[in-house]
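Hey, can you fold this one?
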Amino acid sequence: MDTVMFCRELHQKFDLVGDVVEDMVVVGNDEEFFHYNMRTRKPAYEARFNMATHFSEGLAGVAAGDDYFHIKKDGTPAYPQRYKDVGSFNDEGLAWVCQRFDAPIVHEDDFPEQYLWAQINKQGLVVTPWQKRF
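Sure. Predicted structure:
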């Protein structure tokens, strides 16, 4: 079966079918997302996530409950750290991540100020200083 026909089948099964990136496509219904391996035409792993992004530089962002992190193509975490949000990896091997810091929310407009952003490498190590905005 060619890729177009397979993607049509996926669209019949899932509410969301992403673009094919790095031979993987993110699919999902409601709050259950995962990746299909386009070479094998099978789910790439057994885990299901509340959110998943396309793969970039061999890793994809996912959410499990309130924890955001990156996974490898076999569905295993790329690193042990967990964040409040994660971005895609760029061609330099860096991704933005967000972490909440403890401070009272005085006004709803202050909500974004409750978070700090930094860039990590593929091993999950912070390589830029934490900052309020990126």
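The mean pLDDT is 89. Let me know if you want another pass with a different chain boundary.
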